[in-house]
Structures are given as structure tokens and as C-alpha cells.
TrEMBL record:
It comes from the Bacteria. Residues 28-236 form the Radical SAM core domain. It is an enzyme of class 4 (lyase). Its EC number is 4.3.99.3. Pfam families: Radical_SAM. It comes from Saccharopolyspora rosea. Keywords: 4Fe-4S, Iron, Iron-sulfur, Lyase, Magnesium, Metal-binding, Queuosine biosynthesis, S-adenosyl-L-methionine. InterPro entries: 7-CO-7-deazaguanine_synth-like (IPR024924), Aldolase_TIM (IPR013785), rSAM (IPR007197), rSAM_sf (IPR058240). S-adenosyl-L-methionine binds at residues 90, 137-139. This is 7-carboxy-7-deazaguanine synthase.
Length: 240
């Protein structure tokens, strides 16, 4: 696409791209999707299920990431009929300036764009305009671990921008019951809505075990419940 070939469009640092598959989390669970997973993150959560996007103590960035042009990613998407495109990471908003021409072009041709973000980086107005939905996952103290303080994992201004956009849902990963009061605290403090909770887990058994008590808590607190469909179907396989 000629409008994307300008030298000002820098390549995107990519971890992987895959699909068609199914969106496994949040309001679009079960819908066919293409995934574009970006490399690099501004957090280092021990509970992260994609450490190969940022943890260079365990993974080699030369093997786990590559640079693709906006044109290459656009042509990959354009060659498929799937309408939902999920851009995830890592933390995609670290590269939002590079993503913008891709997101804008795909949105103009009628694709639906979901961006998964940890909610610590302010999205630009131009990005907000083109994105269909932000799936915002602020990190709880349990998930982020002791080495990441609240000032790093919670950005009130970014959460305010995302909330006021009218295009955000707030999705929290839950490990234990104690996490729920922390979620409720952030819900009240920042006016987050709608809230979705989902169990942490990289195996079907763990996900289902935690959902048995998380479902009742979600109902009691007037929240929505998300499974991890991809985990239930394919376990911890990458690229699914």
C-alpha cells in the first residue's frame, strides 16, 4: 500500500504474528482473530505469560524478535479475511507511533482493532480514534511482584484517558481471592468500567479451578468474567 512506504514509517519490533485463531479473553472471546504480538515491555512481572517479549535473562532477543515494516504487516493482514486484529505484547503502546499508520490503514478498510495494554502509557488521540477497543490490564501487586512498585504499574493519567475514551474495558488477572479487593479499590479510585476478571493460569486445570470461585465473586461484585479460552483449548502453546 503506497501510503505506508514513506521512510518516516519506522519498522515495528515484532515478537510473533499468528492466526487465524480465536480471541481467548475479554468481550470478544471466541471470535476469529489475527494476532500481532509486539516485542518489549516497560514492566517485568513474574506472572507474565509472554516473558519472551522482554526477559533477556532467559531469552535471546535476536531469536525472539524481528523488525517488520508497516507494509509487510499490512500485506499479511490484507491477505486474510479475518476482521478482528488483536495487537498485543509485551506492551504495544511503547511503539504506538510506529503502529499508528498500520492501525489507521486497517481501520479504514473496516478491520476491527483491539490493543492489549497494561495501562501505564498514555495513548495518543490519533490512536484512540482508529482503535476499536483497548483491553486494559492494570497489574495487581500480586501479579507484578515485589520489585515493581505501584508508581510503575499504575498510571492514573493513562487510566483516565483510556476510561474517558469510551473504548476501553479493564481486565484484571486474578491469582487469589485477596486480589479482588485491590481490583475493587482501583475500580472506585479511577472509575474503571466495565471491569472484567479472569483467572491466571497456563493450564486448563488451573484456569477452571480458579474460575469456580471467581465466577461467584464476579457476580457478587457486578463484574464480568472472562475465561482463557486459548488455554482451555491449546494449553500453553505459543502461536495459538
Amino acid at each position: 500500500m503506497s501510503t505506508l512506504t514513506s521512510p518516516r514509517f519506522r519498522p515495528i519490533l515484532l515478537a510473533e504474528r499468528f492466526g487465524p485463531t480465536l480471541q481467548g479473553e475479554g468481550p470478544s472471546t471466541g471470535q476469529q482473530a489475527l494476532f500481532i504480538r509486539l516485542s518489549r515491555c516497560n514492566l517485568s512481572c513474574p506472572g507474565c505469560d509472554t516473558p519472551y517479549t522482554w526477559d533477556w535473562t532467559r531469552f535471546d532477543p535476536r531469536q525472539e524478535s524481528t523488525q517488520l515494516s508497516v507494509d509487510e504487516l499490512y500485506e499479511w493482514v490484507a491477505g486474510q479475511t479475518v476482521r478482528l486484529i488483536v495487537i498485543t505484547g509485551g506492551e504495544p503502546l511503547l511503539q504506538q507511533d510506529r503502529l499508528l499508520p498500520l492501525v489507521h490503514s486497517l481501520a479504514n478498510e473496516g478491520r476491527r482493532i483491539e490493543i492489549e495494554t497494561n495501562g501505564t502509557i498514555n495513548p495518543s488521540p490519533d490512536l484512540i480514534e482508529s482503535v476499536t477497543q483497548f483491553n486494559v490490564s492494570p497489574k495487581t501487586s500480586r501479579f507484578a511482584g515485589a520489585n515493581i512498585d505501584e508508581n510503575r504499574r499504575i498510571n492514573p493519567h493513562a487510566l483516565e484517558i483510556l476510561s474517558s475514551s469510551g473504548k476501553a474495558i479493564f481486565k484484571f488477572v486474578i491469582t487469589r481471592r485477596e486480589d479482588l479487593d485491590e481490583v475493587a479499590h482501583y475500580e472506585r479510585l479511577f472509575g474503571l468500567a466495565p471491569v472484567w476478571v479472569m483467572p491466571e493460569g497456563t493450564s486448563a486445570r488451573t484456569v477452571l479451578d480458579r474460575m469456580t470461585w471467581l465466577a461467584d465473586e464476579a457476580i457478587r461484585r457486578s463484574w464480568n468474567l472472562s475465561t482463557r479460552l486459548h488455554t482451555l483449548v491449546w494449553g500453553d502453546q505459543r502461536g495459538r
